[in-house]
Amino acid sequence: MTAAEFARKIRSRERAVGYWVVLDAPIATERLARLGYDYIALDGQHGLIGNAGLLSNLMAIDAGGRSTGLVRVESGEPAAIGRALDFGAGGVIVPLVDTAEDAASAVSAARYPAGGRRSYGPMRSMLRIGPTPAEADDSVLVLAMIETPEGLADIEAICATPGLDGVYVGPSDLCLAVGGRFPGDPEVAGVFEEALEKVRTTAERAGIAAGIHNPGGEQAARRLAEGFTFATVASDLVHLEQAAAAHLKAAGSGPA
Fold it and tell me: The whole model's pTM is what?
């Protein structure tokens, strides 16, 4: 799926399933990108991937041939957003969006003039996205993370931001934002679910996509059934450890 095709899919609010990568392991990423996920998201904020890793893993995703590569950038700074897009990302997931102004700034950083302020220098992306500025603008997504008390409070204005393609829930931080002592705190489960519904329904009314991070496929299916547009299954590092532990247990051994 090309970046332009994936962008149209998300903007049409068609369901999509992705996978989350935190390891700088391009060969593993290429194998994941052959499985049929709509997108593979590289974590440039908390993941163990530097700039060179973002570039090589985006190339691996394209080599896989079936997924679009997204990048969660380290911040909403224009340089971070522009760099990910120049590397060939089909979109950016922008963390810690607290206000509509933050969302508008992210959109501006991802769009070329006159609609934005992205600097022109698509060293790699022009091979697959664009190559003209107008074509590039039409082919890349901007997704704002909702994960703070401020972002949740300003969700209607954020979703109404011109040019924003969708919002993306970071459940760990959002759980903390609604008073949880730790991610998944059962004491705030009800409040947390209310917050998710607020994000999802507000995005739906605004006509933009709503996505969410999930620990596994079953949870992703649940969120899609609830009405989220896209759901990510996470992540390579956690799943590697889980699979290795399961095999160790099956072999009749385990931690002392």
Answer: 0.96
